[in-house]
Amino acid sequence: SYSVSSRTHEIGVRLALGADASRVVGLVVGQGLRLAVAGAAIGLAASVAVARLMQGLILDAAAWDARLFGIAAAIVLATAALAAFVPARRASEVDPMVVLRME
Predict the structure, then answer these.
(1) Could you tell me the CA-to-CA distances from 72 to 8, 61, 81, 102 in Å, in that order?
(2) What band does 95 get if pLDDT is binned at 50, 70 and 90?
């Protein structure tokens, strides 16, 4: 949301130059999802390392479950997509003339 609000002028210029609203939404959601995928990858790697460490420290600890980690990553990515979509949709509905007059 902060990223979109700080880029309102840029988005207004894009819309004034003829960009479709769907293209603006795709741009903002794509940038948000790139960050979420990077975070999910780092989180998955760290969770696998911690799960293996815990397996060695605790007797009868189950090995890491790939299905569970996959579901958790999918939930995080879906939440990030929704969190990026809401401000992106709001930004795509901005009036380019109002934004250009603000400067």
Answers:
(1) 33, 19, 14, 42
(2) confident
Backbone dihedral region for residue 60 (phi beyond 0: left; psi -120 to 50: alpha; all else: beta): left
Q: Report pLDDT digits (tens) over 66-76.
A: 888 899 999 99
Q: The dihedral of CA 89, 92, 98, 101: what is its sign?
A: positive
- Residue 2 CA, chain-centre distance (Å), reads 13
Q: Angle, nearest 10°, between helix axes 66-92 and 8-16? A: 70
User: 51 CB contacts (<8 Å, ≥6 apart)?
Assistant: 63, 64
Written as one letter, the residue type at 83 is A
